[in-house]
Amino acid sequence: LLSARFSHSSIGIWPAFGNMGLVKKDEQKKVEEKKEEVKEVKEEPEIVKRLKETEDKYLKLEKEMEKKIQQLVVEYTAKQQPLLDERKKMLCVEDGAGEKTGTPALTGFWSKALQNHPAFNELVREWDEPVLQYLQDMQHSFVDPEDSDKGFNIKLIFAENPYFTNSALEKEYKTEIENPYCGEQKVLGIKCTQIVWKQGKDVTVEAVAKKVKGGGAKKAKKKKEKEEARPSFFRDFFRDLYPKMELSPDAKEMAQSMQEDEAPYGGEDDDDDEEKDDETLVGQLMQFDFEAGAAIKDDLVPRAIRWYTGEACPDDDDDDDDEEGDEEEDDDDEDDDDDEDSEDDSAPKGKGKGKGKGVAK
C-alpha cells in the first residue's frame, strides 16, 4: 500500500517540479535574449561615439558661456532696478484731486498695458478693471540667480484697496531643461499667492438667483442667491498648477476652450482617452500660464510705457487682411444667394410643394 501510494503521488508531484525547472530556464533564457537585444541596439559605430564626444565638449563650453551670460544678466538687472524704481515713483505721484489709485499720475496705467498685450487682452475681464486700477507696480526675479533655467518669480504690487487685503500677489514658476540638446524647457509647477477677498468684493464670482420651487408671491419675494465662479484675471491667472492635478470645473472649461480647434483624441479605451485628455488639459494650462508669466517678465516689466501707448503691440495687418477676405467671401455668398433667389422667382409656379388640399381660401 505504501509503495502504491508513493508511486501514485509521485506521478502528480515529480512532473510538476520538473516543469517548474523548465519554466525558470525559459524565463532566464528570455531575459538573456532581451539583454543581448539591448546591447545590439545600444551599440553605436565608433564614428558616432567620437562625434558625440566632440559635441559634448562643445556643449560644455556653451554651458560655461550661459553661466557667464546669466552673471551679466544679474549684474545689469541690478543696474536697471533704480530706473524701474524711478518709474514707479513717477506713476505714484498724487495731484491731491480725484480718487486714490495705484498709479494716480496715470490712472489705469498697468490695466491698459496688460490689456494691450496679446497674452492678457482676453484674460482681463470688465469686472477685473476696477481692481487693476490699484495695481502699483510689477516686478520679477529668478528662482536661482545663478541659473535662469530653474524658473522665475513675478510680483504684482497693489495699493490699499477695497477689494482684497493682500499688498502683493506673487507667482513662482519652477522649471527645468527637459532636453539639453534642443533647449526644451519643462514647467514643473506654478505656485500663487492666495487672494484674501474682502466681504462681498470677490470679482471672481457672481451672485446667481436660486430657482424657488412652488410657492406664491411671498416665496417669489424671498429669492435666494448663490455664488458661482466666473472667468476673471484674478481666478485664471492666480491658480496653482502642477502635473497630474485634478482640475476644477472652471479650470477644465478654460483649458477645453483652448483646444476647441484641435482634433479629438482617438483610441479604443474611452477611460484611457479621458485620462489622457485631462493630463493634456493640465499641460495646456501650465504652458499658457508660463507664457503669460514670461510676458510680464520679458515684456511688461521692462517696456511698460510702450505697452501702455500701444507702440509695442504687434501689427494687426494680417488680421485686417483676413477680415477683408472674410468680408469678400460674405459678399460673394450674398451674390450667390441673390442669383438663386432670382432663379426661383423665374421658375414656373404651381409645381412642386405648393399649398396642399384642404387649406382655407
* Beta-strand residue fraction: 5-15%
Report, as a whole number of angstroms, the end-to-end distance: 111 Å
Provide the succession of SSEs: HHHHEEEEEHEHHHHH
The whole-angstrom Rg is 34 Å
Side-by-side strand order of the widest sheet: 1-2-3-4
The unreliable regions are 1-17, 261-272, 345-361
List the helices and strands and how they pair.
Elements (H helix, E strand, L loop, with lengths): L1 H41 L3 H46 L17 H8 L12 H4 L2 E8 L8 E8 L9 E12 L4 E9 L12 E5 L7 H5 L3 E5 L3 H4 L12 H10 L11 H31 L3 H6 L7 H30 L15
Antiparallel strand pairs: 1-2, 2-3, 3-4, 5-6
Helix pairs in contact: 7-8
Would you write up a description of this structure?
The protein is α+β, with helices and mostly antiparallel strands and 361 residues long. The chain has helices at residues 2-42, 46-91, 109-116, 129-132, 217-221, 233-236, 249-258, 270-300, 304-309, 317-346; strands at 135-142, 151-158, 168-179, 184-192, 205-209, 225-229. The chain has a four-stranded antiparallel beta sheet, with helices on one face. A two-stranded antiparallel sheet has the order 5-6. A hairpin with a 4-residue loop joins strand 3 (168-179) and strand 4. It is flat.
